[in-house]
Amino acid sequence: xxxxxxxxxxxxxxxxxxxxxxxxxxxxxxxxxxxxxxxxxxxxxxxxxxxxxxxxxxxxxxxxxxxxxxxxxxxxxxxxxxxxxxxxxxxxxxxxxxxxxxxxxxxxxxxxxxxxxxxxxxxxxxxxxxxxxxxxxxxxxxxxxxxxxxxxxxxxxxxxxxxxxxxxxxxxxxxxxxxxxxxxxxxxxxxxxxxxxxxxxxxxxxxxxxxxxxxxxx
Length: 218
Prior knowledge:
- The protein is mainly α.
- Helices cover 66% and strands 0% of the residues.
- The chain contains ten helices and no strands.
- Helix 1 crosses helix 2 and helix 8 packs antiparallel against helix 9.
- The model is unreliable at 204-218 (pLDDT under 50).
């Protein structure tokens, strides 16, 4: 969202505008249905004009998607680093990732928690689901998890099934009366994992030393 100058330095005005837009879209999505908000409303709340808004996003929904994805990208990057170090997706890594996703949802509970509000359903069923789906697809394509059937079409279906299942569990968990614990949600999700995904037991010591292509053939 923030552009850099030719010298590689962030323009302070762009940085300030980015912060204003981020704060405005998060505040608006927490209070009302962002899917029906207009650009004029959000620009006014951010203290900018419409042309400046359009330099950053096409719609309020697109802006909210970008802001939430930026926070979720931090979780994905941590997971990628952990998988690269271990050589595959372990149950511990998957558990830590899910725990961090729950932290993100709770941090933005005013957005995700209004289950009956269209903007909350959008944040859960579109933004969060698609982000998790792309993360799982990355794991499969990189060989960090090895499904029983190879092929891009199967990887897409496996990723979609896992992601929307996880987010469906998150949505059901949000409907539970407080206090809700992370352990309750994590336990439920782990019971639904297929046997080949994020195995709880460590693999054979030889496997992490194999190439990703070789591990896919096991």
